[in-house]
Amino acid sequence: MNFDGIFTPAITPLSVDGQIDYSAFDEVIEYLVESNVNGIIVGGSTGEYYAHTALERLAIAERAKAVLNGRLPLVIGTGGIRTEDCVYFAAHAKGLKADALLVGSPPYALPTQKEIAAHVLAVDKAAGLPIMLYNYPARMGVSMGDEFFDAVAQCKNIVAIKESSGEMNRLHRLAHAHPSIQLSCGWDDQALEFFAWGARSWVCAGSNFVPREHVALYHACVIEKDFLKGRRIMSAMLPLMDVLERGKFVQTIKYGSELSGLRAGNVRSPLQPLNEFEKQALSDVIRTLKENVSQIVGDV
């Protein structure tokens, strides 16, 4: 499994009564395919997996598999507190013939490094699919450290890591110590630094609604190796990244998708939608971003 390119953690649209809107979900998948992203992730935090029942998570994975029909790689998130639940989702992904799994540390439980390793290895045993690890200590409460990597060193299915610690030194150390594990940017305002360290992958929620601009940065840095152009695109994208880091992350992604013509709907409790001021601010940022990136790409 190759994780090169832009992998979009897809939103899960909701109807006015708060139920999953599967026809709108189909439109999201089609929009991303048409926008030339390189892969789709479902069952991630951007998709609000934590607010879904187990049956809903299975249904979303099945729907994504059917709509994609092999046109793009499908990565299925296995997140959960109990290892047994994560194994269950992994086994279902295997049955769907998904392309890969996204596997993080169980949140809230605060497992040790060896316990995180045992968790990941149990998920791997259930599916035997390529694995993108997900290191996000701000959400999980723990980080995947050296002891963890030592414990999983023999697992051939671990092929990539979405590194979301936000710690630049961590990026440096991963690139140096684990060159066989493909780096994927999981901290948006560090995308340029990831690409400079040789990363060829970016898991970016913003690509739900400005996919072409994310693809443009990837192409500039990874395909064209034009970091001068890449810095200009990155500079144009920073205001959006600032907005995403202020809170209301999923709400912002969903409203951005609405501005792109998709039927995203609201978010599930305890989250609440953006207010009118926040909506207008996001609209202004997106408009300026698109104009600036268009000029940069057109200049070359």
Q: What report would you give on this structure?
A:
This protein has 300 residues and is of the alpha/beta class. It has a single domain, classed as Aldolase class I (TIM Barrel). It is 50% helix and 12% strand. It has helices at residues 22-34, 54-68, 83-96, 113-127, 137-140, 146-151, 168-177, 191-196, 211-223, 227-244, 249-259, 276-299, and strands at 5-9, 39-42, 74-77, 100-104, 131-135, 158-163, 182-185, 201-203. Strand 2, helix 2 and strand 3 (74-77) form a beta-alpha-beta unit. Helix 1 (22-34) packs across helix 2 (54-68) and helix 9 (211-223) packs antiparallel against helix 10 (227-244). The longest helix has 24 residues, at 276-299. The mean pLDDT is 96.
End-to-end gap: 32 Å
Helix content: 40-55%
Strand neighbour order, sheet with most strands = 1-2-3-4-5-6-7-8
Q: What is the global morphology? A: globular
- CATH class group: Alpha Beta
**CATH homologous superfamily descriptor:** Aldolase class I
DSSP strand tally: 8
Unreliable stretches: none
Number of helices: 12
Please name the CATH topology.
TIM Barrel
* Helix-strand topology string: EHEHEHEHEHHEHEHEHHHH
Q: Kindly give the count of domains.
A: 1
Task: Report on the biggest sheet.
Answer: 8 strands, parallel, barrel
The gyration radius over C-alpha positions equals: 18 Å
CATH architecture assignment: Alpha-Beta Barrel
Average pLDDT score: 96
Q: Structural class of the helices, strands and pairings?
A: alpha/beta
